[in-house]
């Protein structure tokens, strides 16, 4: 059975489209086709002995530890209602322009993307807060719906995001595999920091594209996006700073630590989670002075521990070292006291419990998919699928660019039906090594794929942003209006992909400078 591997892939797509749980579908199809391959001598069943090693590799992967921490950071920020302050302030700042509310939604989406990375939380928050305001102002319902859905998806391309973390792990493995097959045994890897750095400018490029479209549409079709008539007036500089400063500081702490080489992505994710808890604690009634003092103590501790570390197990410590160590202990106690106070307030306000539940749910879904995908890819390779994929890519007209165009088209079409996690952990390990061996830069390739996967949140009928908005939108907004509203933004996404394709330096410049 020569094409058993392709039949296996088709069977998986069928099971998922029929509505079976994704993880069970992946594992079930893998087991069934492993048995068929063994029964027909198309696969050496001894290959399944490597499954335990693959699972252990996933469980011991330090990079993936950042996923629950970033998810926790985003959910805590969403529960602490920071989005409401941002939307209200930015709406007053830009609302008097044609399309001003739309610009506010995009900018708030970008800020929340960089500080939370959670698409669902952003779309629901803006659907409940900004969408009714835009409808009352006279915005075209389709345009308003499309704006909210699209701004929410920025959480997948602007770092930090779970998509970029999973993608960096997959691309790193693909890059190593491609080097092995090329006979290179001095292996280079792709880090999360490189993918984050590569995605930053393209993510901001998409923000500029969205805003340019809003301004042009507001100019040529002013009735679609009239200015806001508000009695609150424009906010003063103090109000703008108070609304923007907390998420901006969190962004600087997390991305600055990663891109500056100060911390690994996992360490930076823990900093982000602690920062989100401190911000939520202040909003829920914790003592502002205690939280600020504790935050300052933790910052001083982080800086000083890097400059002058003290290790008490050493035998050559001086009196000054003991004094310095005692100071570090005092700073740590102050920081712990602030964190404890914020956790107490967050628990009393039912923010912490719901945030932890959401974090565990999302994390379990992601890791279940990653683990079962390891089994699927192992069976697929055992059935000769890797060789078939390489043959398909090499036979594409147009050489490496033709093969890349074909793969991007396949990812785009699959995005209509599958989740980004499924595409990333099932399809990409099969096609990415071949594309890299054809000469495509792995970081640039990862960013192109990331923008393509971001588009899957918008494409009907299964785009997650569409479902999120449907659950939060006012009853006068129909599902048809939501679907019609995202169409121009899907076109803008495709345009953004071609911009990065034509100017690869947008994705490659910052990683080359920082790393």
From TrEMBL:
<feature type="transmembrane region" description="Helical">
    <location>
        <begin position="481"/>
        <end position="503"/>
    </location>
</feature>
<feature type="transmembrane region" description="Helical">
    <location>
        <begin position="322"/>
        <end position="343"/>
    </location>
</feature>
<keyword id="KW-0812">Transmembrane</keyword>
<dbReference type="GO" id="GO:0005886">
    <property type="term" value="C:plasma membrane"/>
</dbReference>
<feature type="transmembrane region" description="Helical">
    <location>
        <begin position="101"/>
        <end position="131"/>
    </location>
</feature>
<dbReference type="InterPro" id="IPR010656">
    <property type="entry name" value="DctM"/>
</dbReference>
<keyword id="KW-1003">Cell membrane</keyword>
<feature type="transmembrane region" description="Helical">
    <location>
        <begin position="290"/>
        <end position="310"/>
    </location>
</feature>
<feature type="transmembrane region" description="Helical">
    <location>
        <begin position="240"/>
        <end position="262"/>
    </location>
</feature>
<comment type="function">
    <text>Part of the tripartite ATP-independent periplasmic (TRAP) transport system.</text>
</comment>
<dbReference type="InterPro" id="IPR004681">
    <property type="entry name" value="TRAP_DctM"/>
</dbReference>
<feature type="domain" description="TRAP C4-dicarboxylate transport system permease DctM subunit">
    <location>
        <begin position="9"/>
        <end position="298"/>
    </location>
</feature>
<keyword id="KW-1133">Transmembrane helix</keyword>
<feature type="transmembrane region" description="Helical">
    <location>
        <begin position="6"/>
        <end position="35"/>
    </location>
</feature>
<feature type="transmembrane region" description="Helical">
    <location>
        <begin position="143"/>
        <end position="167"/>
    </location>
</feature>
<feature type="transmembrane region" description="Helical">
    <location>
        <begin position="355"/>
        <end position="383"/>
    </location>
</feature>
<keyword id="KW-0472">Membrane</keyword>
<feature type="transmembrane region" description="Helical">
    <location>
        <begin position="403"/>
        <end position="431"/>
    </location>
</feature>
<feature type="transmembrane region" description="Helical">
    <location>
        <begin position="443"/>
        <end position="469"/>
    </location>
</feature>
<protein>
    <submittedName>
        <fullName>Tripartite transporter</fullName>
    </submittedName>
</protein>
<keyword id="KW-0813">Transport</keyword>
<dbReference type="Pfam" id="PF06808">
    <property type="entry name" value="DctM"/>
</dbReference>
<feature type="transmembrane region" description="Helical">
    <location>
        <begin position="55"/>
        <end position="77"/>
    </location>
</feature>
<keyword id="KW-0997">Cell inner membrane</keyword>
<feature type="domain" description="TRAP C4-dicarboxylate transport system permease DctM subunit">
    <location>
        <begin position="330"/>
        <end position="504"/>
    </location>
</feature>
<feature type="transmembrane region" description="Helical">
    <location>
        <begin position="195"/>
        <end position="220"/>
    </location>
</feature>
<dbReference type="GO" id="GO:0022857">
    <property type="term" value="F:transmembrane transporter activity"/>
</dbReference>
């Amino acid at each position: 059975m020569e094409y058993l591997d392709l039949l296996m892939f088709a069977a998986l797509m069928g099971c998922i489209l029929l509505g079976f749980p994704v993880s069970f579908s992946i594992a079930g199809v893998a087991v069934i086709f492993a048995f068929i391959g063994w029964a027909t001598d198309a696969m050496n069943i001894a290959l399944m002995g490597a499954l335990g090693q693959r699972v252990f590799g996933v469980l011991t992967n330090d990079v993936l530890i950042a996923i629950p921490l970033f998810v926790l950071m985003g959910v805590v920020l969403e529960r602490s209602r920071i989005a409401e302050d941002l939307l209200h302030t930015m709406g007053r700042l830009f609302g008097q322009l044609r399309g001003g509310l739309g610009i506010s939604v995009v900018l708030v989406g970008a800020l929340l993307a960089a500080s939370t990375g959670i698409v669902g939380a952003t779309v629901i928050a803006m659907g409940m807060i900004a969408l009714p305001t835009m409808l009352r102002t006279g915005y075209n319902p389709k345009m308003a719906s499309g704006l909210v859905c699209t701004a929410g998806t920025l959480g997948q391309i602007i770092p930090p995001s779970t998509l970029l973390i999973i993608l960096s792990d997959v691309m790193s493995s693909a890059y190593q595999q491609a080097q092995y097959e090329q006979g290179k045994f001095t292996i280079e890897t792709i880090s999360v920091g490189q993918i984050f750095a590569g995605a930053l400018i393209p993510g901001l490029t998409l923000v500029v594209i969205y805003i340019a479209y809003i301004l042009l549409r507001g100019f040529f079709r002013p009735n679609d996006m009239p200015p806001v008539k508000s009695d609150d007036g424009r906010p003063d500089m103090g109000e703008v700073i108070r609304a923007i400063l907390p998420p901006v500081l969190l962004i600087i702490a997390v991305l600055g630590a990663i891109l500056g080489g100060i911390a690994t992505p996992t360490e930076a994710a823990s900093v982000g989670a602690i920062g989100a808890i401190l911000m939520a604690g202040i909003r829920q009634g914790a003592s502002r002075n205690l939280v600020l003092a504790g935050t300052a103590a933790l910052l001083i501790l982080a800086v000083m521990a890097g400059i002058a570390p003290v290790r008490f197990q050493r035998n050559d410590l001086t009196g000054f070292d003991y004094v310095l160590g005692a100071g570090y202990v005092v700073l740590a106690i102050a920081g712990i006291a602030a964190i404890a106070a914020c956790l107490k307030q967050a628990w009393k306000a039912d923010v912490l419990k719901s945030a932890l539940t959401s974090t565990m749910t999302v994390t379990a879904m992601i890791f279940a998919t990653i683990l079962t995908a390891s089994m699927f890819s192992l069976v697929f390779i055992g059935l000769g699928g890797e060789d078939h994929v390489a043959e398909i890519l090499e036979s594409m007209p147009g050489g490496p660019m033709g093969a890349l165009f074909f793969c991007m088209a396949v990812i785009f079409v699959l995005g209509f039906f599958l989740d980004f996690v499924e595409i990333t952990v099932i399809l990409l390990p099969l096609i990415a090594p071949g594309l890299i061996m054809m000469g495509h830069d792995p970081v640039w390739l990862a960013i192109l794929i990331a923008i393509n996967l971001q588009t899957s949140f918008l494409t009907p009928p299964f785009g997650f942003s569409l479902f999120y908005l449907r659950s939060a939108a006012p009853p006068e907004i129909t599902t048809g209006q939501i679907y019609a509203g995202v169409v121009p933004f899907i076109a803008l996404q495709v345009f953004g992909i071609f911009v990065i394709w034509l100017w690869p330096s947008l994705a490659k410049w910052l990683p080359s400078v920082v790393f």
